[in-house]
Design a protein that fits this description.
The structure holds two protein chains of two kinds. Chain A is an alpha+beta fold. Among the domains of chain A are: 77 residues; 93 residues. Chain A is 48% helix and 21% strand. Chain A contains seven helices and nine strands; from the N terminus they run αααββββααβββββαα. In chain A, β5 and β6 form a beta hairpin. Chain A is elongated, with a radius of gyration of 39 Å. Chain A starts with a helix and ends in a 12-residue tail after the last helix. By secondary structure, chain B is α+β, with helices and mostly antiparallel strands. Chain B has three domains: 73 residues, no CATH class; 122 residues, S-adenosylmethionine decarboxylase, CATH 3.60.90; 98 residues, Roll (Ubiquitin-like (UB roll)). Chain B contains 13 helices and ten strands. In chain B, the strands form two sheets. In chain B, strands 2-3-4-5-1-6 form a six-stranded antiparallel sheet, with helices on both faces. A four-stranded mixed sheet of chain B has the order 8-7-9-10, with no helix packed on it. Chain B starts with a helix and ends in a 10-residue tail after the last strand. Classes of the chains: A alpha+beta, B alpha+beta.
């Protein structure tokens, strides 16, 4: 014993230290186990959650499929079926919106031979749908307009070149749509003037409807007025210059002027086309002629 | 009334069918009410004699008679052969050309080229500008019996011409190019007796069919019931053929073309005929399709399966490019340079 103590007090101490250390360890280990168990539980819960999500997603997809095919299918046993259906509808709409953004809002479909696409550009004026124009465009090797029903006074090829159809088809379609809509609008205006105002004589017009000469008499004064509308900007359905002649007096106005002037071409056209504008206090039809 | 105008009037009155005579003269509106009452329109011969007398009485000049002629031709344009031309390479301001400017410039440009020429320009209700030219030369007065008629829609590159001789063609071309603000003009290789048809074809005014995502009205319209089994088998193919035919040629009333001419300048190929096949130079021949309504016939060929689908470019080029005269060489259909332009 003595020998032992004399031999290694230090080693004994170290043995004791190890012993105390090991005695202190078991409670430490148990906390670790607890921690791990909690973590495992959390993970299990997450797994359940994910499983549920997958389930939901699967049923959503099933619903989307049946919805895309056009079938209306009610999943009776699922209590959340209504919510699911709403979600499916939502995702469908989002997809449609995305596709719409991709094609820039034009109605575009594949042609029957599958070589290209057919784009349709609709025109409208004041909420009335007018003609629809179509373009068949081959995609390979380069974009090429193969067939279309755009009238020859719309410079289709020049527009395609100017807007770089190869790299930016959307810009080309936008400009083309502007031209077509403006033309449709001008044509409709002319038609409306002829229909609603039989007393107004259309002295001159052209296929592009870019010039319009009207002759009418002011009701009370009985004076003849010659009104020339010039639409030099072919992408707009409002005239750029209005020229009014009456008994040697001439009033001429440019669209570049301040928008509040009484000779505003926009107001001039609107006044001819809608009675509402005529009631406008600021603007009376006969008064601005003189 | 001088002699030439009397001759023109007599000829014109004979040309106008008896049924149309009254309405045409009414539109002309040059006769007085008293004269109008005395003309007996049931008797063609006597009405012509009366008309001649009245026109002499009213001292009508050539101007009045050509006015009547123009009115009649505008209303009945399908009497001669019309040739289409295309103005190319527009100047910047060609889109904003006005009728009055065009009128003045065309007249002055033409009169600079030919001394004795009589030009009359009139705008029709459909925005078309009609030009009547009576030609003369340095020593003779304009011959009103053989006028040239030109129809042009301002702001479009197309011009339709009838009664133009090859000698006068460069003169008309130059005047047209200069006054419509373009740089050149070329034959569009399209001709026909029906002016509206060739105009509609080039101006894309006929009903074209494009692929749509909606159920096609074509298939609905062409339903017929017989053996349902066979029908089902055939329906798909049939519908496809019809769709192709409509996409190629259009729908509804197709422009009435009378013919399509293919001038072949290709090598003769036939294994059975060695002598011809070995010949170096191309075998020249002309193939002509003729019909009262060519596009309708071709469409029927395609939709009934007589012609194969997809439609060969040789046929689809007629509506697509708006031409009915093709020169075909071994390198494919080449743009024909020489356009037969004859006087009718």
């Amino acid at each position: 014993m003595e020998g032992l103590s004399s031999k290694g007090v230090l080693s004994h101490l170290s043995v004791l230290a190890v012993q105390t250390k090991s005695r202190r360890n078991p409670p430490q280990q148990s906390t670790r186990v607890k921690e791990l168990k909690a973590e495992a539980e959390a993970l299990m819960m997450r797994r359940e959650q994910l499983k549920a999500e997958i389930q939901t997603h699967k049923s959503l997809q099933r619903m989307r499929l049946s919805m895309d095919k056009g079938e209306e299918e009610m999943d009776e046993d699922s209590e959340n079926s209504q919510l699911l259906q709403l979600m499916a509808k939502h995702s469908q709409l989002k997809d449609l919106l995305y596709a719409h953004h991709l094609i820039g809002g034009y109605d575009i479909i594949k042609t029957s031979l599958g070589k290209g696409v057919c784009v349709s550009v609709t025109t409208a004026y004041e909420g009335v749908y007018l003609d629809t124009y179509n373009l068949e465009i081959d995609l390979k090797p380069v974009l090429r307009i193969t067939r279309h029903n755009v009238p020859p006074f719309i410079p289709l090829n020049e527009l395609a070149e100017q807007n770089n159809i190869q790299t930016n088809i959307k810009a080309f379609l936008d400009v083309l749509s502007q031209h077509l809509n403006a033309h449709a609008g001008r044509k409709q205006q002319l038609k409306l003037v002829k229909e609603r105002f039989p007393s107004v004589d259309v002295m001159e017009s052209n296929v592009l409807c870019s010039i319009l000469v009207l002759m009418f008499t002011v009701p009370r004064q009985k004076t003849a007025v010659l009104c020339t509308l010039n639409y030099s900007d072919h992408t707009r359905c409002l005239p750029t210059t209005v020229h009014i002649q009456c008994e040697g007096r001439t009033v001429s106005t440019d669209n570049q002027g301040p928008p509040s002037t009484v000779y505003n071409p926009r107001l001039c056209v609107m006044s001819m086309l809608s009675i509402r504008t005529l009631k406008h206090n600021k603007f009376k039809c006969p008064s601005f002629i003189y | 009334m001088d002699d030439p105008s009397q001759r023109l009037l007599r000829r014109l009155l004979r040309r106008i069918p008896a049924g149309n005579l009254k309405t045409t003269l009414e539109k002309w509106g040059r006769l007085t009410a008293a004269q109008w009452r005395t003309i007996d329109f049931t008797q063609t011969k006597s009405s012509i004699v009366q008309m001649l007398a009245f026109c002499a009485e009213n001292e009508f000049t050539m101007k009045h008679i050509t006015e009547l002629e123009m009115m009649y031709v505008i209303d009945n344009p399908n009497k001669g052969m019309w040739y289409a031309f295309q103005l190319i390479d527009p100047e910047a301001d060609s889109q904003s050309l006005e009728l009055t400017q065009f009128k003045e410039q065309f007249k002055s440009h033409l009169c600079e080229l030919v001394r004795n020429v009589s030009v009359k320009i009139k705008k029709h209700t459909d925005e078309a500008v009609w030009i009547r030219i009576a030609w003369g030369d340095s020593y003779s007065r304009p011959n009103h019996l053989k006028p040239t008629y030109i129809v042009h829609h301002l702001q479009t590159p197309y011009v339709f011409v009838t009664g133009l001789s090859p000698k006068q063609r460069p003169l008309v071309s130059q005047a047209l190019v200069l006054s419509s603000r373009y740089h050149a003009i070329k034959a569009a290789n399209l001709s026909g007796r029906n002016l509206t048809a060739i105009r509609d074809l080039l101006m894309k005014q006929y009903q074209q069919v494009f692929p749509t995502r909606f159920p096609s009205p074509l298939s609905e319209r062409n339903q017929s019931v017989s053996n349902p089994q066979i029908e089902r088998e055939h329906a798909g193919h049939k519908e496809n053929r019809l769709q192709m035919a409509s996409e190629t040629f259009g729908d509804g009333m197709l422009p009435q073309l009378q013919s399509s001419v293919y001038k072949l300048e290709t090598k003769f190929r036939d294994r059975a005929n060695q002598t011809m096949t070995e010949r170096e130079e191309p075998f020249k021949c002309v193939v002509k399709f003729a019909s009262t309504n060519l596009l309708e016939s071709l469409k029927l060929c395609v939709s009934s399966g007589i012609a194969s689908t997809p439609v060969t470019p040789l046929l689809s080029s007629i509506p697509l490019k708006g031409r009915n005269y093709f020169v075909i060489t071994d390198n494919g259909p080449a743009p024909s340079s020489q356009m037969p332009l004859s006087q009718n």
